[in-house]
Amino acid sequence: MSEEYGTAPTLAALRRARAAQDSALRWMRLLGPALAGGVTLSVLRAEPSVGSSGRGLVVSLTLAAFAGGSYGTHVATRGSWRHTACAVLLVAGAVSLVWAQGGRTGFFALFTAIVLLVRKMPTRLAVALSTITLLMLVLASITSSHLSPFSALVVVAAIGCYCLITLLAERLRLANLEAEQLLTELEGTRAAEARAAALAERQHLAREMHDVLAHSLSGLMLQLEGARLLAASNPTDPRLPGALERAHQLGKTGLDEARRAIGMLRDDELPIPDRLPDLTRRFEEVRGVPCRLTVDGEALELGSEARLAIYRVAQEALTNIAKHAEAERVEVSLDYRHDAVVLTVEDFAAEPTRSDEDAAAGSDGEGYGLAGMRERAELLGGTLTAGATANGFRVLLEVPA
């Protein structure tokens, strides 16, 4: 439960961090054109021979316009339009610089870097083009007298720092976005698991209530039917008070069992195999059929679900015997083995009176009999087999210890 409650604050904190990073990234994108433009103007002022008049001035103004326009296009365009706008700006810049002629290679490289810095491009492509751009700028400073090495280094440093910071911030943002998606999927998975657990709990409760009520109420109905017949034939029959007393005890036992089943949802008070003697004794008293319990081996430490399964399977098997069989005797055995516990419930009759279909229907004919017992066993990694024998019917449960 603590994990479920701990996920929500983590996801909220991650979303807040990503929002802050997105805001910082937007400011960095604003800083990019400003930084590149500022460096360009500084270089122009430091190098009077470049772009101070004539065609050079036209080139400078064109570069400034393209730098601002490239950022505006970045904001306004989406998808493939961004790449189209980037290509148009590059072509237009190349044409204007060719028209200006002479010693403008460095500024064409600078312009290319400005455009790249404000575009969203794949990381590898952006790194490759930026590297080429910076190499062109350095080469221009070496081969041309219009741009000093110091000015070229200033431009390279400015562009390089901005590229590095932008790439790191973008990578961190993408990593957080992926983590947020994973946490969202985890929340969905945990919600689905919670719904499945709730459904399993409802099914578990349905089985428990069935086992409790079917066992007690079927016996109660038999006793009341016997009392009714006695009262109808002979109201003064001395057996009548005994039948009514047994019916009363069955009703009381059923109520206690129902309360215990409900209480299982709140605590760990679960039926254990130690209660099997009481179960077999009550069966013998109510049904009037001898029921012998034998326990072999040294008792093993069992989990709560295994203990519950052993008790409920024994209870359901005895209920089915009372309802569907005309048994002369019943034997219940509990065998503690090295790595498993085996419960056997078998009835013996002069002639077989019960089919596999009778047992499969369950004590109330609605499928909670063998199906419910087998489901209990499978949930524990065990097995349950049931079938007719030469003189009756046998249910065998094996659960791992």
TrEMBL record:
InterPro entries: HATPase_C_sf (IPR036890), HATPase_dom (IPR003594), Sensor_HK_TwoCompSys (IPR050482), Sig_transdc_His_kin_sub3_dim/P (IPR011712). Coiled coil: none annotated. It catalyses: ATP + protein L-histidine = ADP + protein N-phospho-L-histidine. The chain crosses the membrane at residues 24-44, 56-76, 88-118, 125-144, 150-169. It is an enzyme of class 2 (transferase). One of its GO terms (cellular component) is membrane. GO terms for molecular function: ATP binding; phosphorelay sensor kinase activity; protein dimerization activity. SMART domains: HATPase_c. Keywords: ATP-binding, Kinase, Membrane, Nucleotide-binding, Phosphoprotein, Transferase, Transmembrane, Transmembrane helix, Two-component regulatory system. Pfam families: HATPase_c, HisKA_3. Residues 305-401 form the Histidine kinase/HSP90-like ATPase domain. Signal peptide: none annotated. Its EC number is 2.7.13.3. This is histidine kinase. It comes from Actinospica durhamensis.
